[in-house]
Amino acid sequence: MLESRRFLVRERVKFLKSHHTYDILDADTEVQLGTADETISAFAQLFRWFVSKQLMGTRIEVREKPDDSLVFTLSRGWYLIRSRVEVHDAQGSLVGYLKSKLISWSGGFHVYDRDDRLFAEVSGNLIGFKYRMTTPDGAVELGRVSKQWKGLTREFFTSADWYLVEINDDLDEQPMAKMLVLAAALATDMIFKSESRTTDVTDLGG
């Protein structure tokens, strides 16, 4: 999966859903590369109907086709103001983490490596859902995420979305960096967007 640089992330259509599942496709061929599945207990899924998702932890497993081998995980515990999403590789080692901005008017968060060094900043627009991931100084674009239009029926009658994720080719020989960029792209929709629906702009995590 991490050999690719362009991904289509397709949310599966579910009615009365309490957790997220996404298919990860090659953007050029639409061949399925893997899945991103929120793996929470049945009790936690039931609890979400009564308690805001923002107040509960979550765990997402990213697996590669065809054998469904684990590539990396994202996990977030309970939080009040600034959430922290940790990224672990298939062996369980910390790769880095994503942290909400204390104040954000346009949506976004910071990405740190495992040594607590600021790796990237994610900024964008929740309304149009276009995000850029850049180096901390903003000089180099590491990747971008943009929502894709997939037809009138899907847009108006389901809540399932499609996103294009593009990673800078300068990261081709840096699989851990690509992992962080892809993790940030997935977290933008699966975690931070849902947080923003229930938080004030001064506490916005993306």
Written account of the structure:
- With 206 residues, the chain is of the alpha+beta class.
- It is built from three helices and twelve strands.
- Strands 1-2-3-4-5-6-7-8-9-10-11-12 form a twelve-stranded antiparallel beta barrel.
- The radius of gyration is 16 Å and the shape is globular.
- The two termini are 25 Å apart.
Largest sheet: 12 strands, antiparallel, barrel
Please indicate the count of domains: 1
How much strand content do the residues show?
35-45%
Strand order of the largest sheet: 1-2-3-4-5-6-7-8-9-10-11-12
**Annotation, overall tally of beta strands:** 12
In the predicted model, the low-confidence regions spanning at least 5 consecutive residues are: 152-158, 196-206
Shape: globular
- H/E topology pattern: EEEHEEEEEEEEHEH
Q: Mean pLDDT, as a whole number?
A: 79
List keywords for this structure.
206 residues, alpha+beta, twelve-stranded antiparallel beta barrel, 12 strands, 17% helix, disordered C terminus
Question: How would you briefly describe this protein structure?
Answer:
With 206 residues, the chain is α+β, with helices and mostly antiparallel strands.
